[in-house]
Amino acid sequence: MIRFEQVGKRYANGHVGLHELSFRVRRGEFLFVTGHSGAGKSTLLRLLLAMERPSSGKLLLAGQDLAQISNAQIPYLRRQIGVVFQNHQLLFDRTVFDNVALPLQILGLSKPEIAKRVSLALERVSLSDKAEQSPADLSTGQQQRVGIARAVVHRPALLLADEPTGNLDPRLAAEIMGVFEDINRLGTTVLIASHDLALIARMRHRMLTLQRGRLIGDGEAS
Amino acid sequence: MDEQRNRQAAQRVGANPQSVASKPVAQGDEPSSRELLNAWLESHRASLLDSLRRLARQPVGSFFTCLVMAIALSLPMGLALLLDNVERLGGSWQKAAQISLYLQLSLDEREGPRLRDEIAALDDVAEAEWISRSQALEEFQQQSGLGEALKELPENPLPAVILVTPKEVDKAALEALRLRLAELPGVQQAQLDLQWVERLGAILGLGDHFVFGLSLLLILALLLVIGNTIRLHIENRRSEIEIIKLVGGTDAYVRRPFLYMGALYGTGAGLLAWLVLAFGLDWLNAAVVRLAGLYGSDFALQGVPLDDGLSLLLGAIFLGYIGAWLAVARHLSELQPR
Fold first, then answer.
1. What number does CATH give the domain B98-192?
2. What ipTM did this prediction achieve?
3. Is A78's CB within 8 Å of B247's CB?
4. Residue B10 contacts by C-beta under 8 Å, 6 or more apart in sequence?
5. Which of A53, A95, B244, B307 has the fewest beta carbons closer than 10 A?
6. What are the residue boundaries of the structural domains of chain B, listed by start?
7. ABC transporter domain location, by residue (chain A) (predicted)?
8. In chain A, pLDDT over 70 holds for what percent of residues?
């Protein structure tokens, strides 16, 4: 599903974000990427979302080389990816339903199909009764679940999450991780960047550890 | 064990566990061409309605933007319409290029109409009008305001005149015709007053150039106004654009509502400009009619013809669209993510 081969990322100011990173992720796998601030977790996610290009090496996502992908192809690549942000990135002038429907509208699905899938996604995150509310009226945990519903509503092959539990209390964080596991069981590859080692240890999934842009650990969290 | 957990997870999300197992990566079903077309139309409808709603949410701001654009549009258009009216006032080129034949004072009154008929029969003459000496004096008395003084004259000093309207308005041909008419018996003098026609033509030509230059400048101003307005809309929706791009929205998808917004601004501006011109010309017309009446003319300003009004409206929509397109193209390239 994902293949990093000696991937490096050097910024124009000379800062090295990633240093010759190599690893593979199988289809349907659930893994964490961890490390301190500045370790390169966000850079890794940005490369996978084609928000940035690798400076060196080869980065393959579902067979596509992200170093070579054209700008016009990027939106179509992103349609295969769901992304969950720490700050939710919701549109507060739209309802919860409209927020979740956004990727489906972009995909060009019919209204009935959109309604069906959005209902399903909201049900998945236990927010069916909040569909017509504004995200501003929801709690932080509920907002995060709206973000997750939006990320999975179009049934992406890959789900990326950047510190999805960063602002949540431990109980809510565990609940959100449970939602991610449910999604993973349905076949979606899940990659979560998090520095919450305690939470990661409880989940017992594969964990990549980054330090200053280098991969220093790859194994099951314990 | 895993199978059991998968079934439970599938039930929680309302999915079919069998299909999940057979579809390792849960991509969406590809929509058909018909569905895509419907979705594309729906997306356009939604963008148009969304743009309308956003404009309606700021009625004062939207109105003033349209008004600024309308003023920029109505200035050159108004000048062009005034020039059209001036051309009409000057009469057609053919009429303006009349040759005046002053007949000899000694010529018998009955010779005048005969000479007029002879001239009217010429191939290159469209029309010939005879004005008798008494008619000429009468007109002069009316127009000069010297009626009483002229009555004191012992005899009518004015000659009879034949006004010749040529078929062609070519300077060389007119001059040749004038020389030919001057040779006719009974003609004292043949006068072709082309100079004022040329001057009027030059003035109108200058006016056309001025209107063209002004139009270019004001179109540029209009593009800047719409570009700046759309830039502000983009700034206000920056986070929305970022999210749309992150979930796979193409540039065309992002651009669409802004293009509709530009076209809507253009529509508002075009309609306002049409109204401004129609009312402006109507208001000016009262004064023009009064002035023309003092000169014994029934001249009146022509309003905005329907085809000109429609051209103005379509031009405004087009300019709004182009202005928005340029602004979005420029600002989208600056936005991250690409």
1. 3.30.70.3040
2. 0.88
3. yes
4. A185, A186, B16, B17, B20
5. B307
6. 2-21+36-90+201-332, 98-192
7. 2-221
8. 99
